[in-house]
């Protein structure tokens, strides 16, 4: 979007309005309107004054020889980022709430502008988001008064597009000024749309929840949110609030307001950009009670969240409010090794629980494929089944959940203890009728599991084998999955953990993957042969590079989406008695370019059938719904993953008993509003009891489990150094958002006053300090430092250690490959040696090309010239003091003073600084950035190999530099950790080559 300023001659040449802009729809041409980062930060050419604060939008700069400059502090036009939420105010007058009207034009203008800002704040905007400001006055004498009031009221932020007009008058003669505004609030950028989504209409530019098809709840007022936040903070709860306008808090709020709903193109369109007003971090049950009480008192929505691994928008706040992060409730309260039960906090990681139970000979009966980072409470509240369902069925089975501790959303919240079938109103209810704070589940005896992969010539044979394995009475199987060709070969076989190590698969292979007890490998192999298949791989589960379950359930969808973002899926049930018949029916109906079957074996009431998570590539949204409808019509019930509404997903219906539970536990409807249709419509979705498990008794007491362990089974804080992790740590941790840091340094001469290891020493010290200061939730791993780098420029000096350019490049790229193979997608090259920088920039691009890494290059002493810690040094030193000068010597005086010989320090002036002025603009020995420069060796700049004035060094200066460098690194690592790789990197190419795939390594 582009808004024009005051009526300028020829202004129409600035803009061709696209028809899609009216609906604020994404456009494939949006990049042509978006200014570069540099342009967005520059002061517009046509601007008359420098603003003390800047708008969040970019002004259009037009050369003055083409247009007359603006008459005041505004720009000719304003570019609005795509996907922004537009806010339009009506014409607003200078009138008080009580109806009184100031006499002077300036006072009216100030009041009118204040009223405009109140309207904008109610919509989540502020003065920085204003893109156009129109003002009307009744006399020319009022113009200056208005502009003075505008500049003061708007906080120094000039409107980037503006109109100021003199009019004959308003409805009442005492009004002298009227103001109207347009604001645009940027949203998180969406990823590039799959081709089949382009051209479909998006949500209205107003983007209110009702326009998106949600229920009729309203977003709370800023005052209500502020009051609830204040009450929670007064109770000692940590809360991040949007109103604080803190960049780090806003990033965290944005991150914790979403889950993995992007697997659905429908939900991706519907839920993208919806964010909470605040996030509360509960550490105890009392914290939960305090937050809920504060929210209820102000009628502010509360959305409970575990790890956010759900796929249906379970944890997305549809109407703002407070997201309640329960990950801090991570204690294992009771582990009964005699009875085989565990009671743990809702925020306990499933991986942590199972690691603890295995030490006692037990394991979880079932868990989702996101076991690494999913929480127990999140699984029970938002999940339904997973790995282990072949043996034990899903969470809907009586006994799958033994007990729950739940906080109600009443004026005075109660803590209910639910037992037996009383748990079912809360299980898989998305936190709509109670906040789960603790869960008790039964365990199963731990087994030495073995993963077996088999290939088959037909899908029906692979499916028959999986069913036979699941039904074999003497062979315990924890899981069995089937992949229609070429799904496994195309999307799974190239993973870092190769599925078929003993026999390479082909695109014609239909693959089955079974996890069985060690003693069952022989029978499973024979069952494969009986069904016309061949076992291609057998490996102990604990030795597998990647767990079997991370190839199954929705991890299959994840792997496919990593290679093809247009992939989506369905969820349906193929009943046991007709399972093979239905598999064949689906295969006959759909071409493999549109649907590939992915089947998971599940025990339904004692019989084994399939849960289908088929992969889809529909051409349109309409076609997607046609595919779902076809399954329903042909006897395969759909559990719709493309809706955020509980009942519409099909896994749960709300009868009158469950609706009554909601009415008692959440009478104000503040818990995750918009997700339970029965509550919004105030009627049950079924006239009869939805299931016997839906009724509940009056008792709310959790049974006491025995044999409580005295020892603390919680895990200790993990190291942030790669070399200190065990291989089991890497195998059992979700690394998808983790940040690897590769320190690049050098061991090279630094003159007579400094040791050779300067770069390595200060790089290590700064990195160590930064790692200690990172927030606890940041998963960052520092790789072993590379203390020898590309130091050929110092090769004439004694003691120099250097790698050739080829060797350094290959070493860095090989380590990047290892990082990617381990499962990380984010890497920071943290460099302290100038000679590494140019080569490292090339390597960063190669790692992006070869391994799809988000690879960030950072120099540890790269500071802005306006930083106070830098301004103490002379300008010439900042320009030319590149090696062993004032900055590095100061840093070493702070970090390693015993290794600095100040008596040998002097002004090692650079020859580049003494070049004749006539040649400085072109021929330069040394220059920063993209400037013209020579290839140089250090003795070209100074015979000592040192370049800079070491006499300017001081330990205090070094301390300030170190503090600044550490703060910069903490900020960078935090930003990289919070960034979504898909939002930063672009994978769509407008004009791709038509030849064979290019080998990136070449």
TrEMBL record:
Gene3D superfamilies documented for this protein: 3.30.465.10, Creatininase, RutC-like
Molecular function GO labels: FAD binding; hydrolase activity, acting on carbon-nitrogen (but not peptide) bonds, in linear amides; metal ion binding
Any single biological process term in GO: riboflavin biosynthetic process
UniProt key word Zinc: yes
InterPro entries associated with the record: Creatininase-like_sf, Creatininase/forma_Hydrolase, FAD-bd_PCMH, FAD-bd_PCMH-like_sf, FAD-bd_PCMH_sub2, Oxid_FAD_bind_N, RutC-like_sf, YjgF/YER057c/UK114
Residue spans crossing the bilayer: none
Keywords recorded for this protein, A-Z: Hydrolase, Metal-binding, Zinc
Keyword match Zinc: yes
Domain (FAD-binding PCMH-type): residue spans on this chain: 272-446
Cofactor needs: Zn(2+)
PROSITE patterns recorded: FAD_PCMH (PS51387)
Protein name according to UniProt: FAD-binding PCMH-type domain-containing protein
């Amino acid at each position: 979007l582009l808004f024009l300023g005051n009526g300028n001659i020829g202004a129409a040449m600035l803009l061709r309005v696209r028809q899609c802009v009216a609906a604020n729809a994404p456009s494939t041409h949006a990049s042509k309107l978006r200014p570069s980062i540099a342009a967005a930060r520059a002061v517009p050419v046509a601007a008359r004054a420098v603003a003390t604060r800047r708008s969040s939008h970019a002004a259009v700069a037009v050369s003055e020889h083409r247009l007359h400059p603006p008459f005041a502090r505004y720009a000719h036009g304003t570019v609005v980022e795509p996907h922004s939420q537009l806010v339009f105010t009506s014409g607003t007058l200078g009138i008080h709430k009580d109806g009184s009207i100031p006499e002077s034009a300036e006072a009216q203008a100030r009041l009118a502008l204040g009223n405009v800002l109140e309207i904008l704040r109610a919509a989540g905007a502020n003065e920085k988001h204003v893109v156009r400001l129109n003002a009307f006055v009744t006399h020319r004498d009022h113009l200056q008064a208005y502009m003075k009031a505008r500049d003061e009221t708007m906080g120094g932020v000039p409107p980037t597009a503006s109109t100021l007009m003199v009019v004959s008058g308003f409805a009442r003669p005492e009004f002298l000024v009227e103001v109207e505004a347009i604001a645009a609030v940027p949203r998180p950028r969406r990823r590039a749309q799959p081709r089949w989504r382009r051209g479909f209409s998006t949500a209205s530019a107003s983007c209110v929840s009702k326009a998106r098809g949600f229920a009729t709840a309203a977003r709370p007022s800023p005052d209500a949110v502020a009051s609830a936040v204040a009450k929670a903070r007064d109770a000692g709860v940590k809360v991040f609030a949007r109103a604080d306008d803190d960049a780090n808090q806003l990033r965290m709020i944005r991150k914790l307001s979403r889950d993995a709903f992007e697997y659905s193109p429908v939900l991706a369109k519907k839920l993208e950009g919806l964010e909470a007003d605040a996030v509360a971090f509960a550490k105890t049950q009392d914290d939960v009670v305090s937050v809920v009480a504060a929210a209820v008192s102000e009628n502010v929505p509360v959305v409970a969240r575990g790890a956010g691994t759900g796929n249906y928008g379970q944890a997305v706040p549809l109407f703002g409010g407070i997201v309640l992060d329960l990950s801090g409730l991570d204690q294992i309260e009771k582990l009964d090794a005699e009875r085989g039960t565990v009671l743990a906090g809702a925020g306990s990681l499933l991986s942590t629980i199972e690691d603890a139970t295995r030490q006692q000979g037990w394991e979880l009966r079932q868990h989702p494929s996101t076991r690494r980072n999913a929480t127990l409470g999140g699984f029970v509240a938002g999940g339904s089944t997973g790995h282990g369902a072949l043996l034990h069925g899903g969470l809907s089975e009586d006994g799958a959940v033994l007990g729950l501790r739940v906080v109600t959303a009443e004026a005075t919240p109660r803590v209910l203890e639910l037992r037996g079938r009383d748990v079912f109103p809360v299980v898989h209810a998305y936190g709509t009728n109670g906040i789960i704070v603790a869960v008790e589940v039964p365990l199963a005896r731990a087994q030495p599991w073995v993963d077996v992969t088999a290939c088959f010539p037909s899908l029906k044979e692979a499916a028959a084998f999986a069913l036979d394995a699941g039904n074999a009475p003497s062979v315990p199987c924890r899981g069995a999955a089937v992949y229609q060709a070429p799904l496994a070969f195309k999307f799974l076989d190239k993973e870092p953990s190769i599925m078929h190590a003993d026999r390479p698969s082909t695109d014609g292979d239909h693959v089955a993957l079974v996890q069985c007890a060690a003693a069952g490998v022989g029978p499973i192999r024979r069952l494969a042969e009986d069904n016309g298949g061949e076992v291609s791989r057998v490996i102990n589960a604990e030795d597998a590079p990647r767990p079997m379950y991370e190839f199954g359930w929705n991890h299959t969808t994840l792997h496919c989406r990593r290679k093809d973002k247009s992939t989506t899926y369905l969820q349906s049930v193929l009943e046991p008695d007709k399972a093979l018949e239905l598999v064949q029916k689906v295969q006959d109906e759909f071409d493999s370019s549109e649907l590939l079957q992915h089947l998971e074996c599940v025990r339904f009431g004692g019989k084994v059938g399939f849960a289908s998570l088929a992969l889809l590539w529909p051409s349109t949204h309409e076609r997607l719904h046609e595919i779902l409808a076809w399954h329903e019509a042909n006897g395969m019930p759909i559990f719709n993953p493309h809706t955020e509404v509980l009942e519409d997903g099909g896994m749960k219906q709300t009868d009158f008993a469950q609706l009554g539970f909601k009415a008692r536990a959440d009478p104000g409807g503040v818990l995750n509003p918009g997700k339970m249709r029965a509550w919004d419509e105030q009627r049950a979705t079924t006239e009869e009891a939805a299931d016997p498990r839906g009724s509940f008794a009056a008792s709310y007491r959790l049974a006491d489990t025995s044999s409580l362990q005295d020892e603390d089974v919680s895990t200790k804080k993990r190291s942030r150094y790669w070399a200190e992790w065990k291989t089991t740590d890497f195998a059992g941790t979700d690394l998808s958002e983790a940040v690897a840091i590769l320190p690049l340094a050098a061991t090279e001469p630094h003159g007579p006053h400094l040791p050779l290891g300067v770069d390595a020493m200060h790089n290590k010290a700064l990195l160590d300090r930064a790692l200690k200061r990172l927030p606890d939730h940041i998963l960052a791993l520092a790789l072993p430092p590379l203390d020898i780098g590309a130091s050929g420029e110092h090769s004439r000096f004694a003691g120099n250690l250097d790698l050739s350019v080829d060797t350094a490049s290959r070493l860095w790229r090989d380590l990047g490959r290892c990082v990617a193979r381990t499962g990380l997608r984010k890497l920071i090259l943290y460099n302290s040696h100038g000679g590494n920088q140019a080569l490292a920039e090339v390597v960063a691009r190669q790692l992006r090309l070869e391994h799809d890494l988000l690879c960030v290059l950072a120099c540890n002493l790269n500071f802005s010239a306006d930083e106070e810690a830098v301004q103490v040094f002379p300008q010439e030193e900042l320009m030319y003091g590149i090696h062993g000068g004032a900055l590095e010597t100061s840093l070493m005086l702070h970090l390693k003073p015993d290794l600095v010989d100040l008596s040998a320090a002097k002004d090692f002036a650079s020859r580049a600084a003494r070049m004749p002025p006539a040649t400085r603009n072109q021929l330069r020995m040394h220059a920063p950035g993209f400037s013209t420069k020579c290839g140089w060796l250090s003795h070209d700049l100074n015979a000592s190999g040192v370049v800079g004035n070491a006499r300017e060094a001081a330990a205090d200066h070094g301390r300030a530099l170190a503090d600044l460098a550490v703060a910069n690194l903490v900020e960078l690592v935090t930003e990289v950790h919070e960034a979504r790789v898909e939002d930063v990197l672009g994978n769509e190419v407008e004009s791709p080559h038509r030849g064979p795939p290019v080998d990136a390594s070449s």
